[in-house]
Amino acid sequence: MIHLIQHVLQAFFLGIGGLFRWCFFQLLNASFEDKYSKDLEYYWDNKDNTVDKNGFTTAQKNFLAGIILFISFIFLIKKIEG
């Protein structure tokens, strides 16, 4: 049962993080130059174990972005309510 909950949470954070990263880099492409990938599949490819120059995989970056986005929403909701 715990494994199922862990899998669902992980899939949620990976998906939200990948979508957020894609949106963020699309804004950077529009603002500056076409430097970043426009392919959504690149940001959602969580099974790719290729390590980038900073030592992270796509899944690790997506998970971190998802956690940061989730925590930011919690702080935003508390700020609005209080």
Structural class: mainly alpha
Secondary-structure element string: HHH
* Assembly annotation: single chain
* Largest sheet data: none
Q: What coarse outline follows from CA principal-axis ratios?
A: flat
Query: Would you tell me the overall average pLDDT?
Result: 89
How far is the first residue's CA from the last residue's CA?
36 Å
Per DSSP E runs of 2 or more residues, the count of β-strands stands at 0
Instruction: Report Rg.
Output: 15 Å
Beta-strand level of the residues, as a percent range? under 5%
Into how many domains do the coordinates divide? 1
Q: What is the tally of helical segments?
A: 3
Approximately how much helix is present in the residues?
over 70%
Instruction: Give unreliable regions as ranges.
Output: none
Folded structure, characterized:
This protein is an all-alpha fold and 82 residues long. It contains 3 helices and no strands. The mean pLDDT is 89.
Task: Give the SSE map.
Layout: H1 2-31, H2 40-44, H3 58-81
Helix pairs in contact: 1-3
Structural key phrases:
82 residues, 0% strand
Summarize the structure.
Helices cover 72% and strands 0% of the residues. The protein is an all-alpha fold. The radius of gyration is 15 Å and the shape is flat.
